[in-house]
Amino acid sequence: MVSNLESLEQEKLQNPKKGFDFSGVIKFVILLIFMGYFYSIFFGESSIGVLLDAKDREAKLVTEYNKLQNENQKLQKKHFELIQLTPQEDSF
């Protein structure tokens, strides 16, 4: 059995593979696909930067919403106080 292995190894050394080896090309194509995928994650329309910008914008909008809600509440209170102060006409 050892002699068979040795003979196979010697045969491989004497007769190198003929033709083109596609394994390198396939590995390169797979590498390109992964590079494109990671590029889109970090720099594309759905990237991490866009996500962080959206979260920042959301925080600003929530702050503005709360500010406007408080302002509206104060204005409504003032409005209802003014309505109560004005005399109402009786329709007798």
Describe this structure in words.
The chain has 92 residues and is mainly alpha-helical. The protein has a domain at 23-85. The chain is built from three helices and no strands. The longest helix is centred in the last third of the chain and has 38 residues, at 48-85.
Shape: rod-shaped
**Percent helix among the residues?**
over 70%
Helix tally equals: 3
Low-confidence stretches: none
Quaternary structure state of the chains depicted: single chain
Structural class: mainly alpha
Secondary-structure element sequence?
HHH
Number of strands: 0
Radius of gyration: 38 Å
The average pLDDT score comes to 83
* Measured distance between first and last alpha carbons: 122 Å
Strand content: under 5%
Largest sheet: none
Fill in the keyword field for this structure.
mainly alpha, 92 residues, rod-shaped
What would a concise description of this structure say?
This protein is an all-alpha fold and 92 residues long. It has helices at 2-14, 23-43, 48-85.
Question: In terms of topology, how is this protein built?
Answer:
Elements: H1 2-14, H2 23-43, H3 48-85
